[in-house]
Amino acid sequence: VNWHLKENARDHHTSKFSSKELIVRRGQAFVVTFNGTEKPEQNLTFIAETGPKPSKLAKTQATFGISSTVSKESWSAVLQSTSSNSVSISISSPPNAVIGRYKLSVQSTSSGSSSPASLGTFVLLFNPWSSGDDVFMPKKAECEEYVLEEFGIIFAGNKNHINSFGWNFGQFQGDILDICLSMLDRSLNYRQDPSTDVSHRNDPKYLGRVLSAMVNANDDQGVLLGNWSGNYEGGKSPNSWTGSGEILQNWKKSGFKPVRYGQCWVFAAVLTTVLRCLGIPTRTITNFSSAHDADGNLRVDEFYDASGNHLDRAADSIWNFHVWNESWFSRNDLGPSYSGWQVLDATPQEESGGIYQCGPASRNAIKEGDVDLDYDCPFVFAEVNADCMYWNYDPTTGKKTLIFSKSTEIGQFISTKAVGRDDRVDVTNDYKYEEGSTKERDIFKKARKKLGLEDKFDPTAPTPEEIDQRPDISGRFKMAGPFEVGKDLNLILVLENLQSDAKTVQVNMTAWSTVYTRKPVHEIWKDSVSVTLSPKEEKQFPIKIPYNEYQQQLTTDNTIQVTALCHVEGGIQVLVQRDITLDNPAIDIQVLGEAKVNKEVDVEVIFTNPIDREVMDCTLQVEGNDLLRGILEIDVPPLKAGEKSSTKFKLIPFETGPKHLLVNFSCDKFADIKTFKMVNV
Known about the structure:
This protein has 681 residues and is of the alpha+beta class. Helix content is 17%, strand content 38%. The protein folds into 4 domains: 5-125, Immunoglobulins (Immunoglobulin-like, Sandwich), CATH 2.60.40; 143-451, Coagulation Factor XIII, Chain A, domain 2, CATH 3.90.260.10; 470-581, Immunoglobulin-like (Sandwich); 587-680, Immunoglobulins (Immunoglobulin-like).
C-alpha cells in the first residue's frame, strides 16, 4: 500500500505531524494506491471502521464500493487510475464522520467469500477548512492561528498591570496525537459505554465537554492535578511549565497518573493543545477580576475582619485573573445565532452534571444573558458579570455588615492573542455590553430572572438601605515607585474627606502574600494609624514594605494584597484595597548569528542579579518546537550581588520559518522568570 503521505498531508493541512501513519481531515478526499488486484472497478468493496465495536448503525463502520462521484453524505471511493497490477483510489469521508483512528480493509467481491484484506490504519480529524464541517472557519488566517500554530501567548497579572508569557502548545510533536486519542479512551463516558462514546466523536460539543473533564485529574484520573495552596512539594510548581508537551508526555510515561501541579492557565493551555491537535479551532482567554460564584446567585461575597484581614471564609472568590478556552463550532442544538466561539473550561471549579467539567457555553448566549442554555452558562456569566459585595465580619458574634457593593468590578480586559501577531486583543465587548450601560444592566436583570433570583427572597443579600449608604471618606492606594521583586514596596494611601465637617478615622492596614486567586497565604505586614481629616481635606500616607520583610513570604505568583479598613467615627466603614503583582527582573536572549536548518547556532541568555545578596540554585529551562528536541535544562552557577551571568548553548534547527524559543530562569530568590524570542530559521 502507498498512502501518499506527503501529498495527502499537504492537501489536508497535516504536514506538521511527524507520523509514519496517514493523518487526514474529514469531508475531504485522500488518495491511496495498492497492488494485487485485477479489474478493480467492478469488484472492490472498502470497509472503514473505528472503535471497539464498529457498527453501521452507530456510524463507526462504513462499507462502500467504487462509484463514479463523491458522496456528500457517506463514505465513497472513486477510481483515480489503474495499471497492470496496481490501482489508485480516492477515498472521501462525510463532513460529519466520527474522528479517531480507523482501520481500512478491502474485499474483492468476485472471489467469492474471501475475508477482507487489511490495508492498515489512518487517523481522521476535524476539518475547519471544509464548509460542511461543524468546525468550519471561513478565514484561512484564523485556521492557521487556531489549529496550526504551536506557539501561544497567555495573559496574566491583574487588571492594573497585565503581563504575558509564551507557551509551547506543541500539538504536532512526537506522540501527542496518540496521547490525545488515548485521553478520549480514558474518559468516564468511554469506560461506561465505549461504543456509544465513540459514536458521539463526530460532535465537537461532545468532545469539548469530555476533554474539559479529562484535562483535570478530578473524577477520572485525568491529566493534571490542581493545587492553589502556594506549596507545591511533591510536584512542579504550576508557574514552572513552559509547554504542554512535557505535561502530556509525563502523564503517559507515568502510566496515566495525574501530573502535579496545574493552575488555570496550565489546564487551559493543555486543553488548547488537545483540541488543536484534533482539529477544533481553539484559543486561550484571560479574564481579569474573574468571579468564582460558588452558590449560583450572580453575587460574590468577600469578608474582612476589623483589622482589615481578608478572611478566607467564603466559597465565592474574585481571582486576579482566570484563563479558560474558546473553541469554534456550530451549535445545531441551540440554533445559528449561538454558533461561533464556545467557552470551555478545564479548571476544576464547580461540578457540572456531577463531574468537574465546564462548557461548551455559547459566548453569544453569555452576552445576551441566555443563561438557561446548555452548558454551564450561569457559571460563565457570573465569571464576567457577577456583582461584588464586601462585608465586615465579626468572628466572635458572626455578625456581618456590608461595607460596599460594586457592579462594575468583575470581568475586565478580557484578553487573547492576536491572529498572526504576538499582541493582545481585547474581547470584553464580545462577552458583555458596555459596563454601566442600561443594556448591560437589563441583561443582568434578564439573567437573574431566568435563574429565578428576582422573585426569591435572599436572606443573605444586603438590604437596599445598606446598598444605598454613602461613605464620608474615599481612599485609594497609589504606586510610589516600581513594583519589582527584590525592591522595597513603596505605596501611598490617599484618604479624602468628602464631607464639610472634620472626620476622625481609625485606619487598620495589612499586607498579605497571596496566590493569583487572591487566596491569602502569609501575613507580611500590618500597621494602624489614627487620622483626623479637615473638611474636604486629602491626606497622603506613605507606606514602605522592605524587600526583606516580604521576600520569605512571597508565593511564585509574586502577588500581594494590601488592605486598609477605615473605621470612620459616626459613619460607615471604608475598605481600600489593591492587588499588586510584582515584576520579576528581566532576562535577555540573543541569537548569535543566523539560524539555518541543520546548522549549529549559538544562543546566549543574560541575567543580572539585581539584589544585594547572592542568588543560588539557578537553573535555565529552554524549549522550542523545530529548534530543539525536548527540553534543555542547564545549571547556572550562583551569582553574587549585582553580578551578571551569561549562559551559552547551541541549537540545531530542523525546520524553516519563524520559530519561538522559550526560556525560564529560576533561582532561590526569583521563581520562573520567563521570556521568549522569535527566531527566523
